[in-house]
User: What shape does this take?
Amino acid sequence: MFNKEIYIERRNNLKKSTKTGLIIIPGNGNSPISYKDNCYNFIQDSSFLYFFGLNSQDLIGVIDVDNNQEYIFGKEYTIDDIIWMGNQELFKNQALQVGIDNFKEIEELNSLISNSKNINQKILFTKQYRDANILKLSSLLDINPFNFNEYVSEELEKNISNLRNIKSKEEIIEIEKAVNITRDMHLEAMRNIKVGMKEFELAAIIEKIAKSFNATTSFQTICTVNGEILHNHSQNNTLKDGDLILLDCGARTNSGYCGDMTTVFPVSGKFSEVQKIFYSILIKMFEKAESLIKPGISYKEVHLSVCRVLIQEMINLNILKGDIEEILDSGAHALFFPHGLGHMLGMDVHDMENLGENIVGYEDGIVRSSQFGLKSLRLARTLQEGFVITVEPGIYFIPELIKKWKNQNNFSQYINYDEIDKYISIGGMRYEGDYLITADGSRRLGDKMPKYFYEIENIISK
Ligand code: GLY
Ligand code: MN
Ligand code: MN
Assistant: This one.
């Protein structure tokens, strides 16, 4: 938890931008796995954590902008809780630590809402990603949970996103801690990889590192020899000589901030010559993005410049043919790079996407493309000092997609399908780093990470 002044300032900023209304920000409850008392690890809602700081279940934060009042509603601990949980700081005292002297029992929220309705005060809340919170708010506000999204305030979502987009120096310290644990997870995997291991055995080594820092993973670890399957959560393969591992994993610290990195490395410790060719293209794409990111450039522009590098290199290999700009406009290159270049990073690994991908990633007036590839660009907006973003280009040979496009003769004026067949065993590669946008450019967060193939080979051979 930060100093209470930080939470007070954040709420004041939200009041300033929202101007009027009753803002309701529900925290999360426990999420049962198989029966009520057997739950997933508790993860607090990140907007609640940002504005109200408390990392406990079933709290609701309320900001009455018109009357300049702030509340946390919940259920105060009783001896029944303490028997099962041990002694707890009372919520009314915890609330004081985040600058709130109005901790109230949850039942009292009903009368606050009734009063607010009686005076026609606007009641503002954001989209919710947990059914429990949809039901809770729907019941409190007497709305139909099936039409919940019709009642949410896009203006509030934008105001929250505009505040949380810009990371403070205290947040950057926390994100960098998460990135460094994430770095350790990757290095430990490189140091321990061996032919004959199962993917899940490598994942166990990786996740132990997070636990050893009292962190969790920030999302489900992707640890696979089939990197061309973009979100591959299966870990049953045995690692063979010649395979490349794609490792996309991250840590979430106990303060709630996340890291997110991807590396690819050879099981045997040495990249093959053909793997080196594509890995070097990948790093060229990555470095193109690195060289461009700074305040004032749109991330869509950066994404397109990275695509140009890919197209040029694929033309050099005779996999693509034609004019770079024509290929770029057509979207044919997305056969090999079907996702976007990155996303915001913070308390959520895809930070604030619960508020809406387009609210976080697109400015007003910028319409998200529906073209294959570009439609998956989650972050397109103009970069600003204080953003923390990922840079994660990839190159993939997805057999099912190649076969489908080939059968349909898709973009055959630009794609030499016969050449592709030679490289299908490359599978998939992605390289991902986490960046702070600074006043005049960017800074990669965390201690130095291996990037070039020889740096990775050096770590594996030690
Ligand atoms: N870990 C998913 C991603 O990199 O976006
Ligand atoms: Mn990732
Ligand atoms: Mn990512």
Notes: DSSP finds 16 helices and 17 strands in the chain. The chain has a mean pLDDT of 97. The longest strand covers residues 69-74.
